Amino acid sequence: MARRKLIAGNWKMNGLRAAVAELDDVLDDAAGAACDLMLCPPATLVPVFASRAAGSPLVIGGQDCHARATGAHTGDIAAEMLADAGAKAVIVGHSERRADHGENDALVREKAEAAWRARLTAVICVGETEAERDAGRALEVVARSLAGSTPDTATAETTVIAYEPVWAIGSGRTPTLDEIAEMHAHIRAALREHLGEIQGIGVRVLYGGSVKPDNAAEILAVRGVDGALVGGASLKARDFLAIAGAV
Ligand code: PEP
């Protein structure tokens, strides 16, 4: 089955209002892209990005949401608030959230359900640490995290999976192409088992971790890779568009 590729940018805690110039450059090229495009700026920029991107195929997303819709959760943002600000998607379970905020698979699963409740696409992140890979446990660890973080009712319309080896994020290091292919095949098999054939085949699985313009083409050509979740290289429109152009 042909799944349309998705290139998603995660700006993390970077970007002030002046960064809208980068967004405008992405918007100039978004309509001609051969893949779907998503940008996830910090929450402060979601409203301005979403209003500028209105009518374009570029999807604006958040980087995290709370599991509840309202309540006494100082500093948190509900999925409904992101949707109200114009977001159409949200990343949940990024390894930096898991490490910095102690988020576990059960909470990530609740956040994915919160995203759907607000009609946002959930981009669910999973990945192994370097110690887990060195111990030969990468496949097992990722399969367990995927099963714990992904609600059984996930569909191709509501959900994207991002495989992001923790040790590859921001490090300039990536797994070998064979290792990426092996992990994506493993994730695909798990999705088919958990979600059934139709949704299990339809859900897109992105690779994330040090994707740059100079390695994007080879990574995106790996069997089973349906796109990329890009951190640092998504901050500059030129680099983000070069990665999208490698599809
Ligand atoms: C990320 O933060 O999701 C990511 C993949 O970062 P980078 O591309 O900078 O490694």
Automatic annotation (TrEMBL):
Keyword Nucleotide-binding annotated: no
Catalytic site: H94, E164
Catalysed reactions listed for this entry: L-erythrulose 1-phosphate = D-erythrulose 4-phosphate; D-glyceraldehyde 3-phosphate = dihydroxyacetone phosphate
Keyword Cytoplasm: yes
Pfam families xrefs: TIM (PF00121)
Location in the cell: Cytoplasm
PROSITE patterns documented for this protein: TIM_1 (PS00171), TIM_2 (PS51440)
Enzyme class: isomerase
EC number(s) given by UniProt: 5.3.1.1
SUPFAM superfamilies in the cross-refs: Triosephosphate isomerase (TIM) (SSF51351)
Binding site for substrate: N10, W11, K12, G170, S210, G231, G232
Pathway: Carbohydrate degradation; glycolysis; D-glyceraldehyde 3-phosphate from glycerone phosphate: step 1/1; Carbohydrate metabolism; erythritol degradation; Carbohydrate biosynthesis; gluconeogenesis
Keywords: Cytoplasm, Gluconeogenesis, Glycolysis, Isomerase
GO BP term, example: glycerol catabolic process
Any GO CC annotation of this UniProt entry: cytosol
GO molecular function: triose-phosphate isomerase activity
InterPro entries in the cross-refs: Aldolase_TIM, TIM_sf, TrioseP_Isoase_bac/euk, Triosephosphate_isomerase, Triosephosphate_isomerase_AS
Function: Involved in the gluconeogenesis. Catalyzes stereospecifically the conversion of dihydroxyacetone phosphate (DHAP) to D-glyceraldehyde-3-phosphate (G3P).
Subunit architecture: Homodimer.
PANTHER family xrefs: TRIOSEPHOSPHATE ISOMERASE
Family: Belongs to the triosephosphate isomerase family.
Protein name: Triosephosphate isomerase
Organism whose genome encodes this protein: Rubrimonas cliftonensis
